[in-house]
């Protein structure tokens, strides 16, 4: 079982926190900090396993991590998982991110944390590995994004307006305003 | 119609439409936080206030946006549980986009204790059975995170239905989710099991993998209920090509074989085939692990048993030699499992493990260290320790060095010094360890010195003289004593020199060096030992001087003179002891002047032999008839008095002597045994006759023992060292070289090295001798060699070429009690330590009460029926 998946950057800022067992927020943050302490002092070219010890779960648990550029990807797993298997899984996760975001970087994770979660939901469920095939994960994720776009197309001024504002699409903005303007005019 | 709208409504409606534009999206929030690095908390609190406003609106997309932002803030450590109801609103949206946002937020912040969960049952049921498979999947992902006992009970059947979906995408999620249902509602397992079993043979490999995953999780905790599935798993193992599935199955077999040895025998062949054929390191590694588990469970009766172990060890060697640190680490980990049952096979790779000690990766070094303790034998102990000592010199970081130090002591002292053939060497190692800069293990070293000196009689002369050297150089321990506990060794040194002072070569000199030390600078417990042992040495000196009154007088007068400054000690007990010692000496002086002094009166103070006491001796003392331990001897005192009584009774508690350092050794396994030294010494009080007899018998046994280092040789040896040490002592006491750095690092290394070389030569000689004996046939008194004429047998029995040193093992127990009794082993750290390698055993207990029956097949009708009864189920983790 996977007990937790953490992603944080080189200065301990969390970029993804997924616990498959409930911990209060302050404990979650503490776990992130302690894990960072453990992981960040390790040099490159040392092994990717750490005995978790007191952080989560106790003796049966260990931390398996990979360090990519500015980000640490950490999986906390118990002894029913294969260490090398989980290392591969982290690789799959990162490659999927790379495909879905097209050359993923830390900023993608920062601004699209929801998407990262949705990708992760294709990879594991309730702490158990669900899918390890990169193409399958990516195509399922894409299909769901398409679904979202369709919904946005059908009705969705609000969402459209949101994106519109971001892109400073003024005509769109005015279109939305007209309706309410009309109402106001009627009143007075 | 429009006319009737009130002002408020209009404003609200306007807000609904405008609002969206002025609200922050998640993107804006993240950017805002990044732009307010200085007052992030303030910015976020404002954002939360805005979110609260947004959540009050009717607009669902606005709510979804707000919830999405909350999910982000939750990651930053903000508690968002107050928004639980709004999250449910968003979850219940008809739009996939919003539903997904809602379920994500729920999965991050809901837990089994969230009370609004009871409102969600029907909504989740609807989502699970949605015609859109992605909606259903989103619901399942969310549910897996926040499912509780009620949801598990109410939705079990809906999830069961999903297991028969035509879409593998749904089926595999339903199978995995079922495990969470079982955890939260154990009653669901029995009716669901047949269908779960079917899924092991699902046409879709993903669903199959999910089913294997779930059953492996279940079986890991309660393996015996799943033995019946072994044939199916066996078939899967030989047919599946999915490495994930194979790894899970192989791990499962590792858990099943201890219960069914026949299964193990069947497994060896396919597993070895996999080991030979697979190119996936992860699979190879798991195969090795399971083969090891199998071989442990069927220790006998397998013909190719040795070949399999050899194969595993060889493959592991390849892993350890790999440049990939991960493989190296795992290789060492698996080696330690083999070591427990087949130490010989691992010992052959001694060189490799030694190399790992030089690895730059600390986790690998620590793993290698772990292995070492299991690998030592009489033959290689000295080599291994020597390497560790060299290693300690080179290594950086006091944590790792301390780890090395305690490891050295652990491997030397394990099973009552079983592997030590040369105690002179060990004592000199211990003395060298005291030179480790800034060590926290002063206590550990001190206890070892005491333990060895007490248990190994033949070492006392050597130990005494080494300790005398330590005492003569006590001043080096005064410096920097705050950061290190190494001064503790003086406690041992003073006691050994006092107790066994008859072995001191120059007792008077030792006495003088003790008296010239600034004892009052040491911690109280060390001072106390010093004062007590000053008296012991004086007694011995007077006793051995043949009643030379002038000498006695001179000695006592000198000591009185020097001791008076010790009366100013800051420690109450030390001061008291100094004072008592001083007064005894004054009385003695008076008596000598009156010529009424009888040395036997003085020596009576220190009569008796100190024997090690078994760890459980105190507990095993039989309560005499008629003694009621619970009855008050005197009437119960008032509260305050009670307290003082308990402090007094701490006398035999080592914590009293060692004060705050106590925690340092509570972690090591022999603290139990050694604490006995603190017990009152009047425990055994033999008469002088008995003492004499014991001494006689000891001498006899020494004479009988061919390996006992005879006097002539011994003096030569120690004298040689002493000169070299004295020489360096001269350097040390020179005022120009003060401070820690002044301790010559090589002061004693030469001693242990000399002893090391000496014993290597001795060993070689003995080996040659033995060989020539066996070559010469059985004509002489070679009893052993006559039996084993072939060389292989000799090699195997190399142990007899090592000297056997008499070690008092275990300890004294009350009469009529044997050590075997394990009636209360709550503090039996050793046995617990061994168990920790098998996590399944520990987990099994929790699950025993679970009504799991693998072979049970319920009537099909039961599958459809939701169990309505309210069962309180303990959460299982």
Q: Assembly state here?
A: heterodimer
Summarize the main sheet of chain A: 5 strands, antiparallel
Give the overall form of chain A.
Answer: globular
Shape of chain B: elongated
Tell me the Rg of chain B in angstroms. Answer: 37 Å
CATH architectural type of chain A = 2-Layer Sandwich
Main beta sheet of chain B = none
- Terminal Cα separation of chain A, in Å? 65 Å
Unreliable stretches of chain A (pLDDT < 50, length at least 5) are: 169-188
Q: Let me know the number of strands of chain A.
A: 7
CATH topology of chain A: the name is Beta-Lactamase
- Secondary-structure class of chain B: mainly alpha
By DSSP (H or I, 4+ residues per run), the number of helices of chain B equals: 46
CATH C-level label of chain A: Alpha Beta
Stretches of chain B where pLDDT is under 50 for at least 5 consecutive residues are 641-684, 711-749, 777-796, 821-877
User: pLDDT average of chain B, as an integer?
Assistant: 76
Helix content of chain B: 55-70%
Rg of chain A, Cα atoms, Å: 21 Å
Description:
The complex is a heterodimer of chains A (188) and B (877). Chain A has one domain (2-146): Beta-Lactamase (2-Layer Sandwich), CATH 3.30.450. Chain A has 188 residues and is of the alpha+beta class. Helices cover 54% and strands 19% of the residues of chain A. Chain A is globular and about 50 Å long. Residues 169-188 of chain A have low confidence and may be disordered. Chain A is built from seven helices and seven strands. Chain B has 877 residues and is an all-alpha fold. Among the domains of chain B are: 24-107, no CATH class; 117-184, Leucine-rich Repeat Variant, CATH 1.25.10; 506-617, no CATH class. Chain B is 64% helix and 0% strand. Chain B has 46 helices and no strands. In chain B, helix 12 (205-221) runs parallel beside helix 14 (243-256), helix 18 runs parallel beside helix 21 and helix 21 (362-375) runs parallel beside helix 23 (398-417). The longest helix of chain B has 27 residues, at 749-775. Chain B starts with 6 loop residues before the first helix and ends in a 13-residue tail after the last helix. Mean pLDDT of chain B is 76; it is low at 641-684, 711-749, 777-796 and 821-877. Classes of the chains: A alpha+beta (188), B mainly alpha (877). Chains A and B meet through strand 2, helix 1, strand 3, helix 2 and helix 4 of A and helix 1, helix 2, helix 4, helix 6 and helix 8 of B.
């Amino acid at each position: 079982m996977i007990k937790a998946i953490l992603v944080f950057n080189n200065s301990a800022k969390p970029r993804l926190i997924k616990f498959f067992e409930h911990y209060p927020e302050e404990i979650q943050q503490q776990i992130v900090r302690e894990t960072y302490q453990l992981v960040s002092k390790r040099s490159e070219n040392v092994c990717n396993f750490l005995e978790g010890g007191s952080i989560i779960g106790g003796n049966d648990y260990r931390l398996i991590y990979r360090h990519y550029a500015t980000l640490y990807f950490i999986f906390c797993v118990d002894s029913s998982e294969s260490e090398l298997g989980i290392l591969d899984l982290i690789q799959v996760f990162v490659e999927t991110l790379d495909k879905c975001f097209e050359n993923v970087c830390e900023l993608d994770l920062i601004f699209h944390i929801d998407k990262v979660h949705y990708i992760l939901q294709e990879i594991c469920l309730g702490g158990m590995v669900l899918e390890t095939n990169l193409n399958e994960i990516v195509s399922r994720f894409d299909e769901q994004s398409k679904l979202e776009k369709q919904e946005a197309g059908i009705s969705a001024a609000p969402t459209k307006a949101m994106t519109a504002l971001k892109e400073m699409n003024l005509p769109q903005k005015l279109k939305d305003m007209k309706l309410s303007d009309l109402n106001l005019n009627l009143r007075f | 119609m429009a006319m009737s709208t009130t002002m408020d409504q209009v404003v609200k409606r306007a807000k609904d439409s405008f609002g969206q534009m002025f609200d922050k999206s998640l993107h804006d929030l993240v950017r805002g936080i990044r732009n307010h690095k200085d007052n992030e908390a303030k910015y976020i609190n404002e954002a939360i206030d805005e979110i609260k406003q947004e959540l009050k609106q009717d607009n669902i997309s606005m709510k979804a946006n707000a919830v999405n932002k909350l999910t982000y803030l939750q990651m930053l450590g903000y508690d968002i549980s107050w928004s639980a109801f709004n999250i449910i609103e968003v979850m219940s949206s008809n739009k996939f986009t919003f539903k997904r946002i809602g379920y994500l937020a729920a999965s991050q912040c809901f837990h089994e204790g969230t009370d609004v969960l009871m409102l969600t049952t029907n909504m989740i049921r609807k989502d699970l059975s949605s015609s859109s498979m992605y909606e259903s999947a989103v619901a399942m992902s969310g549910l897996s995170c926040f499912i509780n006992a009620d949801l598990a009970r109410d939705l079990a059947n809906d999830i069961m239905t999903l297991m028969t979906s035509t879409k593998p995408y749904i089926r595999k999620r339903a199978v995995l989710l079922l495990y969470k249902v079982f955890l939260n509602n154990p009653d669901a397992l029995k009716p669901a099991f047949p269908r779960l079993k079917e899924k092991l043979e699902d046409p879709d490999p993903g669903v199959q993998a999910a089913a294997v995953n779930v059953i492996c999780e279940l079986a890991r905790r309660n393996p015996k209920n799943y033995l019946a599935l072994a044939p199916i798993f066996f078939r899967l193992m030989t047919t599946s090509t999915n490495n994930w599935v194979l790894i899970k199955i192989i791990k499962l077999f590792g858990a099943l074989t201890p219960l069914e040895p026949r299964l193990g025998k069947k497994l060896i062949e396919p597993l070895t085939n996999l080991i030979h054929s697979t190119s996936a390191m992860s699979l190879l590694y798991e195969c090795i692990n399971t083969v090891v588990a199998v071989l442990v469970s069927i220790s006998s009766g397998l013909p190719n048993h040795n070949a399999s172990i050899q194969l595993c060890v060889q493959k592991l060697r390849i892993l350890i030699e790999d440049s990939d640190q991960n493989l190296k680490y795992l290789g060492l980990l698996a080696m330690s499992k083999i070591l427990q049952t087949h130490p010989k096979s691992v010992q052959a790779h001694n060189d490799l493990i030694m190399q790992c000690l030089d690895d730059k990766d600390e986790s690998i070094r620590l793993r290698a260290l772990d292995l070492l303790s299991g690998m030592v034998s009489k033959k290689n102990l000295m080599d291994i320790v020597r390497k560790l000592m060299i290693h300690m010199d080179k290594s950086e970081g006091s944590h790792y060095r301390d780890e090395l130090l305690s490891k050295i002591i652990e491997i030397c002292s394990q099973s009552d010094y079983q592997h030590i053939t040369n105690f002179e060497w060990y004592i000199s190692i211990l003395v060298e360890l005291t030179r480790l800069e800034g060590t926290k293990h002063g206590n550990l070293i001190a206890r070892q010195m005491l333990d060895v000196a007490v248990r190994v009689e033949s070492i006392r002369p050597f130990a005494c003289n080494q300790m005398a050297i330590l005492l003569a150089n006590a001043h080096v321990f005064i410096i920097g004593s705050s950061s290190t506990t190494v001064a503790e060794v003086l406690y041992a040194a003073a006691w050994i020199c006092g107790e066994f002072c008859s072995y001191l070569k120059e007792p008077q000199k030792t006495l003088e060096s003790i008296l010239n030390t600034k004892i009052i600078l040491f911690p109280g417990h060390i001072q106390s030992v010093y004062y007590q042992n000053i008296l012991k040495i004086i007694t011995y000196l007077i006793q051995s001087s043949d009643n030379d009154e002038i000498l006695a007088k001179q000695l006592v007068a000198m000591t009185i003179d020097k001791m008076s400054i010790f009366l100013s000690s800051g420690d109450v007990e030390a001061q008291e002891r100094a004072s008592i010692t001083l007064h005894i000496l004054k009385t003695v002086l008076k008596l000598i002047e009156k010529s009424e002094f009888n040395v036997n009166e003085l020596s009576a103070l220190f009569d008796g032999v100190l024997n090690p006491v078994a760890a459980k001796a105190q507990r095993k003392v039989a309560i005499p008839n008629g003694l009621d331990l619970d009855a008050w001897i005197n009437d119960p005192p008032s509260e305050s008095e009670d307290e003082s009584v308990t402090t007094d009774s701490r006398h035999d508690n080592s914590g009293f002597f060692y004060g705050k350092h106590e925690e340092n050794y509570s972690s090591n396994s022999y603290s139990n045994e050694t604490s006995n030294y603190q017990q009152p010494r009047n425990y055994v009080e033999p008469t002088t006759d008995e003492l004499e007899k014991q001494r006689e018998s000891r001498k006899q046994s020494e004479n009988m023992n061919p390996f006992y280092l005879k006097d002539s040789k011994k003096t030569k040896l120690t004298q040689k060292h002493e000169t070299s040490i004295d020489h360096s002592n001269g350097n040390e006491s020179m005022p120009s070289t003060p401070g820690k750095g002044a301790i010559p690092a090589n002061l004693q290394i030469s001693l242990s090295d000399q002893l090391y070389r000496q014993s290597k030569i001795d060993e070689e000689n003995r080996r040659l001798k033995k060989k020539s004996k066996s070559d010469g046939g059985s004509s002489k008194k070679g009893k052993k060699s006559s039996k084993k004429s072939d060389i292989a047998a000799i090699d195997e029995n190399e142990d007899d070429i090592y000297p056997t040193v008499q070690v008092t093992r275990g300890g004294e127990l009350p009469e009529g009690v044997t050590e075997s009794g394990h009636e209360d082993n709550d503090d039996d750290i050793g046995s617990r330590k061994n168990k920790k390698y098998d996590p399944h055993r520990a987990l099994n207990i929790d699950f025993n009460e679970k009504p799991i029956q693998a072979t049970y097949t319920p009537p099909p009708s039961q599958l459809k029926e939701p169990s309505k009864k309210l069962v309180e189920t303990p959460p299982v983790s």
